[in-house]
Amino acid sequence: MIEKMELLDVDKLIEEFESMTKDAGNVQRETLKKILEENGCAEYLQNLGLNGKTDPESFKACVPLVTHNDLQPYIQRIVDGSSSPILTGKPITTISLSSGTTQGKPKFVPFNDELMETTLQIYRTSYAFRTREFPIENGKALQLIYSSKQSKTKGGLIAGTATTNVFRNSQFKNTMKAMQSQCCSPDEVIFGPDFHQSLYCHLLCGLIFREEIQFISSTFSHSIVHAFRTFEQVWEELCADIREGVLTSRITFPSVRSAMAKLLKPNPELADLIQKKCLGLNNWYGLILELFPNVKYIYGIMTGSMEPYLKKLRHYARDLPLISADYGSSEGWIGGNVNPNVPPELATYVVLPNIGYFEFIPLKENVEEAKPVGLTEVKVGEEYEVIITSFAGLYRYRLGDVVKITGFHNLSPELKFICRRNLMLTINIDKNTEKDLQLAVEAASKLNTEEKLEVLDFSSHVDLSTNPGHYVIFWEISGEVRDEVLEECCNCLDRSFVDAGYVSSRKINAIGPLELRVVQRGTFQKILDHYVGLGAALSQFKTPRCVGSTNNEVLQILCNNVVKSYFSTAF
């Protein structure tokens, strides 16, 4: 007898969310109280003299604002196997590794059952709002998810990327079933040891179940674009596998081969259909709907450093809705996307007031002197840095994210992600964020569209080996571009950084001419392979947009693959 899975009650989930956000202030006080009661015996809190107090006023008076570096010695003791309550009341048994693309190496972040529960809560909440707008049938999902290996730390704790820790948790699969979101690929593919082979099998499973696929998702939009760029290269091989019912020899792992053998049967009609559809497309425009006719939307994190991939994703998706997934980090979740019909560029996230205790540092004042404000005290139109207190041992932790308050949903604020604070191009008095870089690249890459070419990916570096120092922008382009076009692109990049400190410094030559370096095709794939080789999961990969001198290996990959270089003559 087939076990009947109980589906989530969408109306009830929305009702609970509405009720909670109407009482956001009290929910925040109760959440802080719960966190401090559960973890009051932890050494970190004991040393700060809270003495059992759980109110926000005492908490803020006793507990300092911290960065990851401040907590690193405590986390290291946990990693090394200390079983005493250091940051949390209950022992931490699992460690998450951040993507590592910001600093060049992953950070260790505590992960526990409470953090898993907040993850599933935010999944369920945004699913409810998504399903109300875009109802799905009980089919399957093409989930382009990958799990890197979990390892053991010196102290015997399980360590893996945050996404791996979630995907490997038994509650994840149950929640996906309840959300009608079962992955079309078997576990052996998701947990396969080689992501190139897993990606190929994800695509093959998607094609086998093409009529049943209801939506396509991945953690980040980059993974979805990467998957369909790969499809362009391997579609004929996929068709051959389907036609013969035999898996290509490129898949070498026995566990993956045997799992795929159960799904793959000779189907020449399906192979002919896919071949016909692929040959009928113009430059792969609208590919996704041709392959998967019943897909309702595409889902993944599409804001921040993922925005540059939206143009290519829309090319593949045609008029399918793109829905940006929820807002969080390896350290914890913050907000859910409860307005799924809004395009990703305008996506906002409503803070769930019971998944952590949140504070915000106003950025219009001097940050070192600015006093953090509570969740319900933020002002619409202002920008803030996010501070999180979580159930997993982070107290008044500076996340480093800059958000803008766009409004309120009942009494809980709606946030728009702006940028990471520490991802800045700066030499003199100039300050250019990841968003500034993205806008400059968008403006300059428009000059390529007449050549019918696209910027596939990009990064940047501040080169201080020259005097004066200058910005270096790395581009990977889809084909050959005339020198005069790239020279103009270089000038356009330089002019597009409109920060007053940058412009004035360029005019007096306190910052040298911007340099555009074009790298050969496949360079950013080498960077991805480098991170995956270090243990990162493809699901969690973010192209590093600003490569500092401490991130030497990635800088070497970029510099060793430069094929052309141009200096700006804009100033």
Account of the 3D structure:
This protein has 571 residues and is α+β, with helices and mostly antiparallel strands. It folds into three domains: 10-113 and 327-420, ANL, N-terminal domain (Rossmann fold, 3-Layer(aba) Sandwich); 135-320, no CATH class; 434-567. The protein has an eight-stranded antiparallel β-sheet. The termini are far apart.
Brief characterization of the structure:
The protein is of the alpha+beta class.
Tell me, rounded to a whole number, the average pLDDT. 85
| Count of all domains | 3
Number of DSSP helical runs:
20
CATH superfamily label of the largest domain: ANL, N-terminal domain
CATH architecture of the largest domain: 3-Layer(aba) Sandwich
Briefly note the structural class of the backbone: alpha+beta
The radius of gyration is 24 Å
In CATH's first tier, which class of the largest domain applies?
Answer: Alpha Beta
Shape descriptor reads: globular
List descriptors.
571 residues; GH3_M; four-stranded mixed β-sheet; Rossmann fold; 20 helices; eight-stranded antiparallel β-sheet
